[in-house]
Amino acid sequence: MNILISNDDGVYATGINILYDELKKNADVTVVAPDRERSASSHSLTIDRPLRVNEVKPGVFSVDGTPTDAVSIAVHSILKKKPDIIISGINYGGNICDDVIYSGTVSAAMEGAIMGIKSIAVSLVVNKGGGYLPKDPSLEENLELSFKKSAEFVWNLARAVHNGAHLPNTLLNVNIPQTIITKLPEHCFDYRITRQGKRHFEDYIVENIDPRGRKYYWIWGKNITFEEITGSDYEAVHSGLISISPIHLDMTNYNAMDKLKNMDFSLKHDKS
Question: What average pLDDT does the chain have?
Fold first, then answer.
């Protein structure tokens, strides 16, 4: 199996390197990832400047661009042939509910799905609070173990996806709760096939003045709440289960199409 790994935490992040070490035991693996953290970069593509690639070590490349840039350059320029699977992650922090819209982790896998390649986005939902899971500082000590156990599950999933039917225009968005991954017996994982959930994120803008007297803004958010949706990724993660959500690239609202067809948008001119 030929696997391409990317992420949005950057080529030097702990999660991607532990995943690389685990997968290369059984597969031909190449890493092509941003040279720095590019979280919340969504599916952006750099077209206003040239991109540069650096070979960090054999089989591991950094790109001074977005996760989407990295996957595109990997498939079209670096790799000798199209990979069997693209895996994005393991991200530090969850990508559930509306995170899918903003996530660079998900977008790297999205680029693979657009190319017709089986693609998986993987995130470790860490216990740092923030609304996703209760804050548990003691689990920070087990962070490396959490990534290692998660990487074992990713290998199991990659094999199943590789041998299974291709799902056109679809990527798998996987979220692994740190609450459970460190406690599970070896090679034993509890998961659920889920739908994308819904959160309410109260965005706010911090406005301040820099030392040169220029105004700047910092975008962040607070008071995260989640809708209680049966079968959602949020419900699974908070139940201590790994969430696997199939994300489809066709965003057409087909129910809305039927309603729109019954509406009249033609211009009516008053003859008087």
Answer: 90
Q: Is residue 217 part of a domain?
A: no
**Could you tell me which residues are beta bridge partners of residue 28?**
2
Residue closest to 16 by CA, chosen among 81, 86, 103, 64: 86
Q: What average pLDDT does this structure show over 158-171?
A: 95
Q: Does residue 130 form part of some domain?
A: yes
| pTM (2 d.p.) | 0.89
pLDDT of 199: 84
Instruction: Check if the beta carbon of residue 174 is closer than 8 Å to that of residue 161.
Output: no
- How far CA 37 is from CA of 8, 43, 83, in Å, comes to 6, 15, 24
Contact 108, 6 (CB under 8 A): yes
Number of domains observed in the structure of the chain: 1
Q: Which of 181 and 91 is assigned the larger pLDDT?
A: 91
Q: Where are the beta strands (DSSP E) in 93-198?
A: 118-125, 170-177, 191-193
211-258 per-position pLDDT tens digit: 999 999 988 766 678 888 999 999 999 888 999 999 999 999 999 998
What's the CA gap between 261 and 272, in Å, rounded? Answer: 29
Specify the amino acid at residue 208. N
139 found inside a domain: yes
Judge whether 118 lies within some domain.
Answer: yes
Task: Name the residue among 15, 101, 24, 18 with its Cα closest to residue 4.
Answer: 24
Phi, psi dihedral angles at 48 (to 5 degrees):
-105, 5
The token pair that represents 219 in the structure block:
């975008």
CB atoms within 10 A of CB 78: 15
At residue 109, the 3 state secondary structure works out as helix
108 contacts 31 by C-beta, under 8 angstroms: no
DSSP-based three-state secondary structure for 4: strand
Using DSSP bridges, classify how beta strands 53-57 and 28-34 pair: parallel, antiparallel or unpaired.
Answer: unpaired
